[in-house]
Design a protein that fits this description.
This protein is of the alpha/beta class. It has helices spanning 21-27, 64-77, 106-117, 149-166, 180-190, 211-216, 238-249, 264-273, 284-295, 301-314, 325-332; strands at 37-44, 50-52, 60-62, 81-87, 122-127, 170-173, 197-204, 254-258, 278-282, 319-322. It has a single domain, classed as Aldolase class I (TIM Barrel, Alpha-Beta Barrel). The protein has 11 helices and 10 strands. It has an 8-stranded parallel beta barrel, surrounded by 9 helices. Strands 2-3 form a two-stranded antiparallel sheet. The longest helix is centred in the middle third of the chain and has 18 residues, at 149-166. The structure holds ligand PBG. Ligand PBG is lined by residues 126, 128, 130, 138, 174-175, 210, 213-214, 227, 283-284.
C-alpha cells in the first residue's frame, strides 16, 4: 500500500481533476482496451446457422460456419481470442461423456476450422465433461453416484489431447477436479504439445449465475443435483489462493476467477498474490442481468458493459472472458 499524502480542503479539491472529459481521461488509472477481451462463443453441432438462447438475448448458438465467421469478426475488430463452449446433440451424450474424447467430434472440427481459416485469432476451449454427459455433471460418476475425481482426470486428459491435436491454443479446464492441471500438462508434454497453454479455472465457485449458460449448452434440464462437491463455496477466499497456488505449481500458464462481478475481491487477491496472468469470466448470469435490465429500460447496457469490464481491470485482472466482447470492441473502436 502506498502512503496516502495528507490533503486538505480547499487546497485540495478532488473535483478539479474531474471537471472535463479531457482531464478525466488524463487521470484515469485503469484503461480497458480491446486487448483485454476474450469472446465467449456458444457453438452447436447442427446445421442451423444461429439458434437464439432465450436467457442470453443477443447471444446465439453458432454452427461451424458461423463460428468461423465470428473468428473473422474478432480478427477484424482486434479481439485477441475466442473461448468456445459447445452445445452437443443430446443423442451423443452418455453417462461417461465419451463424445468429449472423440477425435472426429464437433469440438475438434470447429477448432480446426477456425485455426485453418483465421489462424491469427487465439482459440481457447473449455475442458470439462458437462456438455457431453447425460447427467450434466463435469465429471464421471462412481457406483455411489459421486463425482469420481481420478476417473474424471483421465477423461479430461483425453479431451485436452483431442483439442490440442485439433490445434487449440489454450485448453481451459473448468471442471474443478483436484490434480487435473498436472495430469493435463504432463500429457501435453509427453505428446509434444509443448506450446499448448493451460488457462486453469482455478477459483471457480458453485454459483447461481451459471443458469443461462446451462440453458445455452443444453445441460440445465439434465443436471442432477448441484456442483457443490467440486466447485467452491461462495463463503471462501483463502481457499481460492490455495487452489490457484496448486494450479500454478501444476503447470498452468494463466489462471482464472469465476464468476466475475460478485467475486471482484477474489480477483484482487489472486492477482496481487501471484505474478501470473490472471483472467476473470463475466459469466452468463452477469450478461443476462445487464441485458434484462436494459431491455426494461432500467439501465444503459453500453455504459454498464464498459463499466463492468473496466472494474475487472481495476481489480487486477489481465483480461476478461465475456459474451459482450464483440459489442465492447465496437464501443472501444
Ligand atoms: C462448466 C462450465 C460452466 C461455465 C463454463 N463452463 C458452468 C457450470 O459449471 O455449469 C459457465 C459459463 C457461464 O455461465 O457463462 N464446465
Amino acid at each position: 500500500m502506498t502512503d496516502i499524502v495528507p490533503t486538505r480542503y480547499p487546497l485540495t479539491r478532488p473535483r478539479r481533476t474531474r471537471q472535463a472529459d479531457w482531464v478525466r481521461r488524463l487521470t484515469r488509472e485503469t484503461v480497458l482496451s480491446k486487448d483485454d477481451l476474450i469472446w465467449a462463443l456458444i457453438v452447436h453441432d447442427g446445421s442451423k446457422p444461429r439458434i437464439p438462447v432465450n436467457a442470453l438475448p443477443g447471444v446465439d448458438r453458432l454452427n461451424l460456419d458461423q463460428a468461423v465467421e465470428a473468428a473473422r469478426t474478432a480478427r477484424d475488430l482486434g479481439i485477441p481470442a475466442l473461448a468456445l463452449f459447445p452445445h452437443i446433440d443430446p443423442a451423443l451424450k452418455n453417462e461417461k461423456g465419451t463424445e468429449a474424447g472423440n477425435p472426429n467430434g464437433f469440438v475438434p472440427r470447429v477448432i480446426k476450422a477456425i485455426k485453418d481459416e483465421v489462424p491469427e485469432v487465439g482459440v481457447m476451449c473449455d475442458v470439462a465433461l458437462d456438455p457431453f454427459t447425460s447427467h450434466g455433471h463435469d465429471g464421471v460418476l462412481n457406483a455411489r453416484d459421486e463425482i469420481d475425481n481420478d476417473a474424471t482426470i483421465s477423461r479430461l486428459v483425453e479431451q485436452s489431447l483431442v483439442q490440442a491435436e485439433a490445434g487449440v491454443d489454450v485448453v481451459a479446464p473448468s471442471d474443478m477436479m483436484d490434480g487435473r492441471i498436472a495430469a493435463i500438462r504432463e500429457a501435453l508434454e509427453d505428446d509434444d504439445f509443448k506450446n499448448t497453454m493451460i488457462m486453469a479455472y482455478s477459483a471457480k465457485y458453485a454459483s447461481a449465475f451459471y443458469g443461462p449458460y446451462r440453458e445455452a449448452i443444453g445441460s440445465a434440464t439434465a443436471l442432477k443435483g448441484d456442483k457443490k462437491t467440486y466447485q467452491m463455496d461462495f463463503g471462501n477466499t483463502d481457499e481460492a489462493l490455495r487452489e490457484t497456488a496448486m494450479d500454478i505449481a501444476e503447470g498452468a500458464d494463466m489462471v482464472m476467477v469465476k464468476p466475475g462481478l460478485p467475486y471482484l475481491d477474489i480477483v484482487q487477491r489472486v492477482s496481487s498474490t501471484f505474478d501470473v496472468p490472471t483472467y476473470v469470466f463475466q459469466i452468463s448470469g452477469e450478461y443476462a442481468q445487464i441485458m434484462a435490465a436494459s431491455e426494461r429500460g432500467w439501465l444503459d447496457a453500453d455504459r454498464a458493459i464498459i463499466e463492468t469490464l473496466s472494474a475487472f481491470k481495476r481489480a487486477g485482472s489481465d483480461g476478461v472472458i465475456t459474451y459482450f466482447a464483440e459489442r465492447a470492441a465496437r464501443l472501444l473502436s
